[in-house]
């Protein structure tokens, strides 16, 4: 990990699952070359616009058919990427909620698919397209399963801002890209099979509080990242103090009012970000009508 290109697929269990991928990439030494496929609407969020300075995003519409050419051109640009990169793709297409699970179970029952319990049915078109364009230069797929222990509160953006910790268990399995089937339909079925196995793995975690009997691997906390954060914090605080001293911003009512207005804007933006990050506010569950097996009905 961190020394090869990889396509990363994960279940989308919570509000900030993307942060799990970033932490994993950071501790593997390739955060600077981590990429993500995201909805176009996400780029209007302040945090995404800011983080675009550090990462690259492929912004797509909800329909893969509409944006497959965008995905293809974006992936082709990665063929000679100079650093080991991870391309993250949430193939479930939306975050997990009970309402979406019920919709997925109803759809699976009507179409004869395995009925999910802990995941949603993957939308395989984007995954198939990514695999078909990345086979020649990406050697591995990282199959990531994220679970929250029963004893730990779910991690949310609000808890993150409050500095409240949450425990997250992560299971990663490496698959060789060359071992995937050749046809698109077989690749799509491979992806569906992966999520059936992921569902069973989450059942085991719910029952036993762990993914397997294997010994946990401690990836550690890199000192370099801590030094970078401390350095930026000192720089920002020192710069803010110098600016206030130079501008005398708080020495007049006009300056105080301007500062209060700026603080209100920042608070409002953070509130929008927190609300957008909540699973309950993501796209509503949709049930695709199943084709009748009886042509006469």
Automatic annotation (TrEMBL):
Gene Ontology molecular-function annotations: 1-acylglycerol-3-phosphate O-acyltransferase activity
Keywords: Acyltransferase, Membrane, Transferase, Transmembrane, Transmembrane helix
GO BP: any one term: CDP-diacylglycerol biosynthetic process
Top-level taxon of origin: Eukaryota
EC number(s) per entry: 2.3.1.51
Reaction equations catalysed: a 1-acyl-sn-glycero-3-phosphate + an acyl-CoA = a 1,2-diacyl-sn-glycero-3-phosphate + CoA
Domain Phospholipid/glycerol acyltransferase: from-to ranges: 6-128
Transmembrane region(s): 226-244, 256-276
Family: Belongs to the 1-acyl-sn-glycerol-3-phosphate acyltransferase family.
UniProt name for this protein: 1-acylglycerol-3-phosphate O-acyltransferase
Organism: Glycine max (Soybean)
């Amino acid at each position: 990990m961190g020394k090869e290109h990889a396509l990363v697929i994960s279940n989308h269990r919570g509000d900030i699952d993307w942060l799990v991928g970033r932490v994993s990439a950071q501790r593997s030494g390739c955060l600077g070359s981590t990429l993500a496929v995201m909805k176009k609407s996400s780029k209007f969020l302040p945090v995404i616009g800011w983080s675009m300075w550090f990462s690259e995003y492929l912004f797509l519409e909800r329909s893969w058919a509409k944006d497959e050419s965008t995905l293809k051109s974006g992936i082709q640009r990665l063929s000679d990427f100079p650093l080991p990169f991870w391309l993250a793709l949430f193939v479930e297409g939306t975050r997990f909620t009970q309402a979406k699970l019920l919709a997925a179970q109803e759809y699976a029952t009507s179409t004869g698919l395995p009925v999910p319990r802990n995941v949603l049915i993957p939308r395989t078109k984007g995954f198939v397209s990514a695999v078909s364009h990345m086979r020649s230069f990406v050697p591995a797929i990282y199959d990531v399963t994220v679970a929250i222990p029963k004893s730990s509160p779910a991690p949310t953006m609000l808890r993150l801002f409050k500095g409240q910790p949450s425990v997250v268990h992560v299971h990663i399995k490496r698959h060789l890209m060359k071992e995937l089937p050749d046809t698109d339909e077989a690749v799509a079925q491979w992806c569906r099979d992966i999520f059936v196995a992921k569902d069973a793995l989450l059942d085991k975690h719910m029952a036993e509080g762990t993914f397997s009997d294997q010994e946990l691997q401690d990836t550690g906390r890199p000192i370099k990242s801590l030094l970078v954060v401390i350095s930026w914090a000192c720089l920002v605080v020192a710069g803010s103090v110098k600016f206030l001293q130079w501008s005398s911003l708080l020495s007049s009512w006009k300056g105080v009012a301007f500062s209060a207005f700026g603080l209100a804007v920042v608070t409002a933006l953070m509130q929008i970000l927190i609300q957008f990050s909540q699973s309950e506010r993501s796209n509503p569950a949709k049930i695709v009508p199943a084709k009748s097996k009886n042509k006469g009905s």
